[in-house]
Amino acid sequence: MPSSRKTLPQNILAAFQVIEYLRAFVASRLGLSAMNNLLILSGVFSLFRKDVLIEVGGYRSDVVTEDMELVMRLHRHMREQRRPYLVQFLPDPICWTEVPQKVGALARQRGRWHRGLIHSLWLHRSLGWKSGSGSLRWIGVPYYFLFEVLGPLVELLGYIIIPIAYFMGFLSPVYFWAFLFLAVTSGAFLSISAVFLEELSFGLYRSWGDFALMIGVGVLENFSYRILTLFFRLGAMLDIILGRGGWGKQERAGFDRIGSSPVKT
């Protein structure tokens, strides 16, 4: 798909995902890549050394996030053999991907991603405790486990405990509103910063209208999309407990049928 289509998607879920992807790619993945602690790559946009890929046996067919599991397996393989290597994220190439535009499709995708993350971390849990794992043991694996796997539980507890503490008088109004202000502004700040960095680096969305809309979507995300995906990830954790899984039905609209643009990654 040519990268000349630079308008924001008209579908609100797709617009939210533009901001989400910008935040993920511009911020966390660049930082983890710089430390060689990146455990997740977008499979369709990834390139691997063929010889090493064959060494580890290629993609597995018994996982729902085969690209994520493969990256972790490559980390483990190279570190166990004490061979120098890099798993890097390159922000310069401009790629386009189709994202879910319906709530049901988004729920299935995010549920699969979260189940796959938990499964992959469990399969390669030795990366979190073996001495040969290097910085993955105290940066990469803890980051994904604490912020990605356990993040939904911590966030849900915050939504429950803070209001209860406020209404029961255990939390002063000053601290309650300060917590609410910081929760909203910190999330919005990360999103807005990602938008500014994208514009400074690539300038794909030249329209001032699109730029203002991206800022607005970044703020609105904290009150809607973020909470929505929180419950999708919590549902994935429940699926694991109940032994449910699988890919589920994946819906594709096709770029030619999308009213505006697909999402840039």
Automatic annotation (TrEMBL):
Ranges for domain Glycosyltransferase 2-like: 18-170
Annotated TM spans: 143-167, 174-197, 223-242
InterPro entries in the cross-refs: Glyco_trans_2-like, Nucleotide-diphossugar_trans
Keywords recorded for this protein, A-Z: Glycosyltransferase, Membrane, Transferase, Transmembrane, Transmembrane helix
Recorded superkingdom: Bacteria
One function term, GO molecular function aspect: glycosyltransferase activity
Family named by the database record: Belongs to the glycosyltransferase 2 family.
Protein name (record): Glycosyltransferase family 2 protein
